[in-house]
Amino acid sequence: MATMLVQPPIPAFHANIPPMLRTTNMVITHTSSSTTHQKTRSSRFGECPPGFRPIFTVRVAEQTSGLVADETPTQIKTALYQALEGINRGIFGVPSAKKFEIEGLVKQLESQNPTPDPTLNLEKVGGCWKLVYSTITILGSRRTKLGLRDFISLGDFYQNIEIAKGKAVNVIEFDVRGLNLFNGRLTIVASFKKSSKSRVDINYDSSTITPIQLMNVFRKNYDILLGIFNPDGWLEITYVDDTMRIGRDDKGNIFILERSEENSI
Question: Mind listing the pLDDT tens digit for each residue in 175-216?
């Protein structure tokens, strides 16, 4: 004879609770009542005894899953630009908490890189870019010697990638305050070649400062200036899309650049 397994009946208390509520938090809150029950009160679970006064009520609160959908690159970039406000590209240093925040957003973008093999898609990399953040800093005596505390201020940083020539032209603009206000620029030309699907090796070729007045200002400390901006080494392109590029070099620096239409190089 076949054996029949009989499932015990589900208690009415559980049977009447919708399934979605069985996994929710039950929050018990104290309430007061001035009502005196003169007769037995009916309940879906049975009869309440005479004189019953409710002391506690049960409030069911839905429990969220705690899962948050990943932010899109556009959302992350918006947060990144907000974090970069007011820090002058980080060139004179940023508080450690701010630096940590920026690097966290950078890592989020890098994890969603739409161009995982950038050196195989150099058309994404070519053209003019403007620096919006770098961990390269000019601090202490270097800043004083270069006059960046007093009468010289930094303008924009541009980089033009010439794919066909294998060249990168970097331009740092300066504004000089004095009896005669003038603008100048340091131009550094470097060559690059692919070393992996995401990395390029970079070699310094030449540099010039114009106009001559600016060269006279920097001449004594020109080695300091080149020591800061010399691109020799390698660069890992960790993120690139149509509007933003992020790289990390062999010295541990991070660079964030945005696509520029000005092409002022």
Answer: 988 756 688 999 999 999 999 999 999 999 999 999 998 998
Closest to 26 measured CA to CA, from 39, 13, 10: 13
Q: Which amino acid appears at position 201 of this protein? A: D
Q: Which two tokens stand for residue 219?
A: 């001449």
Q: In sequence order, which ranges of 130-246 are alpha helices (DSSP H)?
A: 140-145, 212-218, 222-229
In DSSP terms, 209 is beta-bridged to: 186
Tokens representing residue 246 in the block: 């992020």
Residue entry with tokens 């879906």: 44
What are the domain boundaries of the chain?
A: 73-259
DSSP tally for the chain: helices H, then strands E: 6, 12
- The CATH code of the domain at 73-259 is 2.40.128
Euclidean distance between CA atoms 35 and 33, whole angstroms: 5
By the 10 Å C-beta count (0-12 exposed, 13-18 middle, 19+ buried), 255 is classed as buried
CA 108 to chain centre: 6
pTM over 0.70, yes/no: yes
Three-state SS for 182? strand
Q: Are 129 and 259 in contact (CB under 8 A)?
A: yes
